[in-house]
Every structure is written in structure tokens, then in C-alpha cells.
Amino acid sequence: MNQTSAAALNRLHLSVALLSIAIIAFQLVLIHVLSITQWHYFAYMVISVALLGFGAAGTLIALARGWFLERSSFLLPLLMFGSAAAMATVVGITQAVFGGFDSLLLFVDPSQVWRLLLANLLFSTPFFLGALAIGLIFVQHVDQIGTFYFANLLGSGLGGIVAIIILGLLSPQQLPAVTAVFSLAAGFLILPNRRLRWLIPAAFLACALTAFNIVRPVYLSISEYKDLQRTLNLPDAGIVAQRNSPYGLVQVVSAPALRHAPGISLTYSREIPVREAVFSNGNWFGAISEWSAANTEHLLDYTTGALPYAMATPNDVLVLRAGTGMDVSHALTRGARRIVAVEPHSTVLDLLDEQYSKTMGGLFRHPAVTVVPLEPRTYLATDSSHYDLIILPMVGVFGGTAGLFALQEQNTFTREALSEMWRHLTPDGILCASAWLDYPARNPLRLAATMVETLAEAGIDNPAAHLAAVRSWGTITFCVKRSPFTPVEIRNVREFCRQMLFDPVLLPDLKPGEREHYNLLEDRSIFTYMDQILSPARQELYKTYDFRLQPATDNRPFFSQFLRWQSLPHLIRLFGERAVPFIEMGYFIVIITFFQTAAAALVLIILPLFRLGWRSGNRLWTLMYFSGLGVGFMLVEIVLIHCFVLYLGHPVYAAAAVICAMLIFSGIGSYTSSCMPIHEATPYRAAGLVALMLLLYAFLLPPILQHTITFSMGWKIIFTMVLLALPSFAMGFPFPLGLQLLARRSEADVPWAWGINGCLSVLSTALATIIAVEAGFAAVFLLASAAYVIAALAEFWT
Amino acid sequence: MKDSSFMPGTSAANIENRPQRVLPKILFLPFALAFLLLLFTGNALAEEEALIYKNARDRMVRTQIKSRGISDPATLRAMESVPRHLFVPETSVPDAYDDRPLPIGYGQTISQPYIVAYMTEIVQPKPQQRILEIGTGSGYQAAILAETGVSVYTIEIIPELAKNASERLRRLGYGRVQVKSGDGYFGWEKHAPYDAIVVTAAAEYIPPPLLVQLKDGGRMVIPVGSPFFVQTLMLVEKHGKETGTRSLMPVRFVPFRRAE
Questions:
Q1: Model pLDDT for residues B80-94, shown as the tens digit of each residue
Q2: Domain for residue B5, yes or no?
């Protein structure tokens, strides 16, 4: 194969790039599809396991290297066609065979575990076949690994862009088959002249399956526990509008029994109006409210969310994560003169503007309303105005979410975010946030803790004078005021409570017994905890409470993550082991994913040693070096996505930009490495350099981003590219250099090394999440640097 | 009747035309015995099965319900009587008496036995009372309420569930339970006012028509939580114009604090 002509080599490079496009695009598409049919955490688990296909491919090549290399010209296109066929059909097959699978039932019905394992196996097929082809090419052309790795990384980067484009253009069920087209093209590019008798039918079959699944895609059946499906179960319910977008599939449902009145007062006696509602990826997004400028009353007047309006009439209002605009129409009805509605989901905004403007009484086109399609934090960083009222989005949902979104980064609710909001308040301005009451109490307590610590940071000695909260049967609303509450305002709060049958929870002059006049609690401990949060003894509560209550921070932005592992035995005793996973399912799933992938990775790494032999001078350094690179690269990717989402303000595009830029710059680094002479120490030095660079970044990147976040978008994009290019370029060196060095010493070990890298990359996605939750993203950065240090130190174990 | 016997070569026509031959009664005996045996074993099996489920139910009441503090005799009697395993999907029958909710399709569940018992005890059902249930589901809660002697009116919004529950309740002898397929938001004005309202399919609001249809002094109970984890039970008590709520815990109160 070393005599391969230049043209054939070029075709092979292009083929690797095309296959890499297909694999990354398919991965992103699969996350999208599974997030629609199930939940994001399930997509995360399936993808993690499926990506072990890369590790498995390395293991298989290591076990049967000779057999594969002898037949490579025939096998390579066959594997690519196979991968394409699997991409096109696997979603349909899993829907047909495991139609009854529901990830929410994993902890309820033991048979679901087997279905999940089979689904994992099926989903890993396209990755396994594709990775087998790429691995085979790497092993065969290890002398030119720099350029092939470049093609692989470039293709992967472009795959991210392709995914973003097709996510916005096509319906979710068509997407997997569309990505298969790239894999097909990769196969056709390298069709050999021999043995076409077998390859042509395989190509034809793959093409036919791909075409069929594009033209007649399978219907996606959605979990019956998802908001969308439950709403569609209502009589005469139907989807009346739909839009594809990288942010998620947006659907509008209409049903004669669909109503929205979150935690409305028991005094409300009129009919709750029937509405249409918006769902994003099958999850509730918001109700489309009919509104008219002539309205003098609003449905939200009867909720605890009306608390700030009971105290004053704000002129300038900022609504963060405005959603479908209920808080905006409420502010207008209550007499606000200028309202800024910040909502990053631009697809929903476009849909509402184009199709529902009339229904909503032209709300978002009202002269007093300015709509900003940005992440709230990014807007706050760039905006210099002050507001009389800032409204945060509601925390939680009625009845809870079973902790499905526990690991969602919520940058709007961190301590830094609230401090930023505090700075945007006028001297008498109010910051308002509401939450659904939960049991055991978590959301209201953390919200209170965040507000109190914001006040403490602002130098307020007596937080009780600035904090008010009222509670209905289901919700609680907090108001933090920049100046102390006046007696008139306090009187108005009491009157508001009396009229609505609400109870004050926090008020500067709260009287004994006042907290439970209308809504009694069997467990009153929430009041004790609330009082303790207001006192300097709150640190003691943080330490001893069964759940984490410390405010979320930019470093650990998981507002909805409360579970602490030490409390598990207590919670199991209390609620039973079957119920406990439903307290915070998201984190449980990540832990399960971690152990599942760790066990599989261990098997995949050890298995080739039965053939390659256990004792060799290369074993330990190979393991250290390629594990370090696998873990390091992935951790950096995850932590940079976190940093730049906040910086750029558009979560999906920011994530895509980071992934693409990192992969492409690393590819360029890899290409450059192919032009370098290699000495024994070069790979370790490259890894050491990356480790040093990451260490610097861990300390310098956050302040740099903080100081430049106010710059214009054009500048920020330039900064992003420069900041990403430097480490990414350097990170492109160690892997191809290491493989070349290994090939010199023992060519048979190359696939094993590639497999180690693949397995550890997958494992570190779950690891990154666990570390971010437990210790914060800064620790993830440091760990990434440490991983490269391990790779650099491998030199001493050669 | 003249005796005859089969003769070789007898044609079909001949057989048809000849007088019907009566077999000696003794020949029926094995069949009759076999049938009786089957009947008795069948009955015995059914009885044995009924006994197994009865034992499971008794155990459920003892370990899951009484042990958690439910003491209302009518509620306990009802929980001991209603065959829960006939209200769950076939695949869940072996788990019917487990201490947990079970899926019944359409994103709905049959509540954990303890929660059903707790909700029943809270509304304090007394014979001759009228109780409205919102969210029939499998019909289990309605059957439990019916066992206490109250008149039960139940509404289910998902037509398929309403149809199945109605048939099941009738088949199991709870024909007095009136099932309506429709939107529970509006209640069932025809039979109002109600002594109690049990909302098993809770929404994020309490429908105003239900409050209107609740008698003065009446109670409404609503479980709050996700399908497989009930956090609290909300009790709404109507006293004239001043309606109040009480948030009750399905678990024993213990502080969520750890000793450091």
C-alpha cells in the first residue's frame, strides 16, 4: 500500500474527511433525535456508549491486524457502506424493535435495562463500522498519520457545521439518513478495481436504504411521559405549527383542554382560557397568550409572580428568558413603559412573530417592547441601562421534573448573574424570581440563598430589610429590593396576600403565625431553614442539609443539581430505593454512564493484550501517553464550550463554533506535525507544552473573557478564534507524533493506542460532568492540563 | 329402539338414514369425570390464585399501609378487598402489590397503594356521600372509594382509558361507579355538590369550577409530584369564601439534616 499513487492517496484523505463529517454529523443528529424522543440525558448516555465503537474498533484491529490489512482495499469501502446503511436505518430499527422503550421507566421496569443495552449496541454500529475504517487507514498509513489525522479532524470539524445546517433545514426523522450520504460518498471515492462483484451490491443496498429513509423516514415515537406527548393525548389535540432548528424541534400544539395558569390563586373564579402552547424538543416551552393593549387585568395578577406589582408600578422592566412573553404582557398590563425581553431561542421568537403576532396582540412588536435574542448573561454584560424591575424565569415545574434537567447549565441563576442584575437595578429597583414549591425543599431554599449572598456581596448588612417572599399553595415568589422596603410597600404585600389567599414567608416585620394563615404546611421546617439562610449561620445549613443549597456559581452553574451522595442512605430510608432516582435522575444517569463506559473501556483496552502480549517495553508508556491525550483533549473541549457559550451568547452556535474551531485548528497542528522531523522526545515535549498552555489558560482565560465580553460581536468572534486556535493548534501535535513514535517501536501496537485514545475520550465526557458538578469547571481545566502532564511524563516509562 | 352396530361397508347415506345410535351411558363417564376434574382443578386453581392475591393484598395493607400510619377502618377494608392486580396491565400483574406506582399507558400511572390509601383516608369517605374523582386512570382509586360505600363519579380525559376503566369497573362489580369521558376541568355539575373531590391527575392550577362544585366544608385532595414520585398531597378545604390549603407529606417527617 506504500506504493499507492498520489491520486489514490488524495482520494483516501478525502474519504477520511467525508467519513469523519458523516460520523460527527450523525452523532450530533442522534443527540438531537434522542433529545426529542426521550430526554437529553438519555441521548447523552446512548451517545457515550455508542462512541465506544471507536475503542472497540481499535481493539478489533489490534486483535486481527494482519487479516484486516490484507483485505483493506476491499474492506474499507465495504465498512463505509455498512456505516452509511447503519446510520440510515438504526433509528428506525430501534423505534420498530424497541418501540416500548422509555428511559423514564429504567428505574421502574427491569425489562427496560435489556432494551437499553440492545439499543446501545445498535446505536454503536455506525460508529463502530466507521471507526474501523478510519482506524484501518491510520494503521496502514501510520507513516503519514499527520496528514490523515488532519483529514480526520478537519472532517470532524466540518461535520459539526454540516449538522448545524441540516438541523435547521430538515425534519428530525430525515436527518440520520442525510448524514449517511457523506459516508456513502467516502466509500465510492475509494472503490477498488477488484472484487466489485461484492462491493457494488453492498453499495447499491446502502444507497437504497439511505434514499428510502430520506424520502420515507420512520415516524419518531416520543416517550409518553414527555410534555408534548401528554398534551397530544388530550382529546382533539394536534400539532398546528412546526419548525426545525439547531436549538431544537419547535412545535405548537392546540387542544381544547390545554390551559396554562401556573399556581393560580384559589380566588380566581373566571374560566382559565384555553391556549396553544409551544414545545421545544418535546418539552414545555410556554403558552401562547392572547393579549390586548386594552386589558386592565392579567391572569398572572392572580399568581405570586404579581408581588412586585403589588408594591410599585415599575417603568423599566427587564424580562430574562421571556419565553412566549407572558411576563412581558403582564408588565405591559401593569403599566410598564419600557420592557426589554431577552430570549435566546430565536426560532421560537421568529415563529411567534410570523404566525402568532395577531393572537398575541402584537406583543413583541409593541413600541414599548424590545426583544433581544441573546443569552441573558451576555445581554447583561453588554447593556448599561438600569431597570425598576428585573424578572427571572420561573424555577422548576409543577410536580418537579424528576431531576431530568439537574445537570443543565443555568447561567442566569448563578451568584455572579444575580450580582450583575443587582448592578442593573435603579436605586429602588426590584429583582424578582419565582419557584414551584418542592418537597424536600430545594429550589426555594437555593433561590433564597442566592439572593441573600447577592445582598451580602453588595454590602447589605441587614438582608431581611431588602427581601420579601410570598407563598401560594404551589409557588413562592422572592423580591429583592435595592433599597429597604418601605412601610407602605410592606402593607401592600400583606394586602396582596389577603386578597389572593397567599402567605408572606419573608417580610421585614414578619409576625409570628403570619406565615401559615391560608396555606398550612405539615412540615414547617422550610421556615426554619429560610430564617437560617438569612442569618450568618447559613454556612452551617449548607454543610448539614441533605441537599446542596450553596448558590450556583459560574464555575458550577448547576442550579437544579442538589443531590449529595452522602445523603443517599438517608433518602433511601425515607423514600425507598425505587423512588430515590426520581429525586434527581439526571445525575444518576451520568454516574451510571460513567461506570458503564469505564467497565466497557477496561475490557476493550485489556482485550488486545491477550494477543499483543502483556510484557513489553511499550505497554505502560503507550497506556499513559494515549490515555492522557484522550482525557485531556475531551476535557478541554467541554470546558471551552462552557466558557464560550456564556461569552458569545448563542448556546448552540457557540458550542458548534468551539467544536469546529478546535478540531480544525488541531487538524492544522497535526498537518504541521507531519512536516517535522521526529525525535524520541518530541511527542512528550509537545504534550508538556500543551499542559503548560492549558495551565495558563485555566487562570487567564476567565478574566480575558470577562473583560472582553462587552466588545462587539465581530471582535468577540475574532478573540474566540484566536483564543481557541492557540491551544488547539498545539493539541494537534501529540497524537500523530506519538503514533509515529509507537509505529517505529512496535507497529502492531498502533491500533491498541488508537483504541485507548478513543475509549478514554468517551469516558472523560462523563468524567468532565461529574468533576464540573463536584468541583467546578476550573477543576476540569486543571485536570485537562494534568492529563497532558501524564502524557508528557510517559517518557520516563519507556 | 333397536340396537344396531357399525357394519363394514356401510355407506354414508346409510349411516345418515339409519336411526341414531345411542352410546351406552358408561362411555360418557370418563368424559364427564374429566370435565368435572377440570372444573374442580380449575376452580381449585382459581381459588388458589385468589388466595395468593388475597395474601399479597393483606401483606400490602400490613407492611405498606398500616405500618405507615393509615388507620381508618373503611380505607383499610377497601384496600384489603379491591383486587389491585386486575387494575394493572397484564405485564405488571406480578408487581401489582409492590410498594410503587405502575405505568398504565398514555403517560399515566396507577398510584402507589399507600398513596391511594392516604388519599382515601384524607377525604374521610362516609356512606351516602358523593365523591368526584378527576382522572379515572385504571379505575383503582374509584373502586377503593366505592368500597367505602360512597357514590363515586369519575371523569377521565383520555377516551381509551375512560372506556377501559368503565368496562373494568363494571366487570368487577363496581357498576355503581359512574365514569365519564371528558375534560375534568369542568367537573360534573349534574351530580354536584360533592362532599369530596379527589384529583388524581393534577394540573398546575386548581380548576375554579371544581371549587364551586365542592360542598361547604368539603375536601379536595391533590397529589403533587412527577408520575413516579409523589412529593406532597395537597388538601384544599372550603370554608365559605375562605378556602385554605394544607400540604401533607406522604413520608414520615424527619429533618433533612445530617449530623456532621
A1: 999 999 999 998 999
A2: no
